[in-house]
Amino acid sequence: MMMDFSHETVVWAAKTFGLIYLVIFSMAVVAYAFWPSRQKEFHDASAAILKQEDRPWR
Amino acid sequence: MISNLTTGERRGALLILLVMTLVGLFFAAAGRGDPIAVHGALIMVAAIALAFPIMARLYDPEPPAERFDTYYDDPSKVGIILTFVWAAFAMFVGDWVAWLLVEPTWTTSGAWSSFGRIRPVHTTGVIFGFGGNGLIATSFYVMQRTSRVRLPDQLSPWFVLIGYNLFCVLAVTGYMLGITQSKEYAEPEWYADLWLVIVWVVYFILYMRTLARREEPHIYVANWYYMAFILVVAMLHIVNNLAVPVSFLSAKSFSLFSGVQDALTEWWYGHNAVAFFLTAGFLGMMYYYLPIRAGRPIFSYRMSIISFWGITFMYMWVGSHHLHHTALPQWVQTLGMTFSLVLIVPSWASAANALLTLNGAWHKVRDDATLRFMMIAAVFYGLTTFEGSFMAIRSVNALSHYTDWTVGHVHAGALGWVAMITFGALYASIPWLWKRERMYSPALVEVHFWLALSGTAIYVFALWNAGIIQGLMWRTYTENGNLAYTFLDSVVAMRPYYIARAIGGLLFLLGALAGCLNLYLTIRYAAPATDTASLKPLRDELNDAATLPAE
Fold this sequence. Notes:
The complex is a heterodimer of chains A (58) and B (551). With 58 residues, chain A is mostly helical. Chain A is built from two helices and no strands. Chain A has helices at residues 2-34, 39-48. The N and C termini of chain A lie far apart (62 Å). Chain B has two domains: 1-69; 70-537, Cytochrome c oxidase-like, subunit I domain (Cytochrome C Oxidase, Chain A), CATH 1.20.210.10. In chain B, strands 1-2 form a two-stranded antiparallel ribbon. By secondary structure, chain B is an all-alpha fold. The longest helix of chain B has 36 residues, at 259-294. Chain B is built from 19 helices and two strands. Chains A and B meet through α1 and α2 of A and α4, α8 and α9 of B.
């Protein structure tokens, strides 16, 4: 009984919701990374760590 | 150092130590006859020993308000020293264990020094003692710089650092006393596990509080990796260690899981410990220190984001590849294998991102051993993740499983990736933190680098050979269909490889000891930095940093 539940349910979840969820999640991540209006933010963030004033901003 | 705490923080520290003393006393007294009493006494003595220096300075004046103009780096400094101490101790024990496989008599007659007890002392010492302290020390450093804000308070970072080290000490002393729950990389018993949960929650809250107060609008990607490390390790640790103690005064407990469920939970934990302890946290280190040391921004920030989510979501599923050809259902094995193969995409994206960042800075890699440590780390990261995906294929695993190939693979990752990136990050941080011009001896850093690289190469090549020979000997049949070799034949055949691996380990240990010496000399004798001269090479590069190379 327990075995049926785990195997059948997991296969069903993987083939339906699981598949869609992973595909949608991947697309969301790629969209976030490539969204044009974010590029400046990413660019600034990656360059900002090189500016080491070594004291906190207050 | 203690005078830098506010009076309130000093009182808070004393209160925490008082509670710890009482808890320790309780276990020491009530747990008589059980090994837990030894640990109770250890906790009590440690808490009292820490209370004395605080009481001596309890009425010192409040620290000046100028402290808010600087980052709070005392815990990072102590964390770096502890990282080197654990490296020396745990790598020594590791090499001792390696020589025991060559000559089993090279130990004492005491039970504490038997192979089965000191091997987990080595693994816990290097993973949690060396790696964990390196992660905690650098994460405090990185989260402040990337957020451009001082740590929110001065007590909780000490609680995290000292509490974590107490956990590590309970773990390794426990093994030598015979206390273990026999789960690989999760050997400590229930009370040590509960203590780590408290420490870890404080660590998580500290990180969140620092990020919440940040002055930078964007949370730099290194912090994402550190956060994933903290959050997921908490989740793994809690679930895998669900257990019922025999009594509250006994060190022994029984796991909530049994049989194949226990095995799967353990390796879900075990492989994600590789993923989130030994990978995500150290990637956070790499994404901060490598661009800074090279003086160039990361090759592609977008790729670092995509790799982050890839690694975070794929790794969760791969643990079952440790249980190929076992009682675990076939489809669960296949699931683990498939995700392991897909995982190569984000892994190689991260390794490539690191190496491409160095384009235009290769002359620095040539001249600067610190940056070379980080470069070699990225190479080994790429190599080991490819090897890991390959070994996760069920038919390859039929050859590699239970052989020393697995041990070789783990060490390609642990020595080549984890230790190299850590040493690189520490050699970069030490002059910055202690305000020195540079490390006392750059030549000693070179010596460390070459010892580490040659030690890793010898170790890994020896165990590749060893593992494949073992695997082949175990599956070679005669014409009559009998096994051609006994198990003992394969053990005897390992001897030359075990000697080579122990020599490789020895070289790596000598490199770490050279690092300890250099750390001591730098703190003690290195010339202080004039202004922020140690950052000067960086400043010169800032003009180059206007554009991301990938765009």
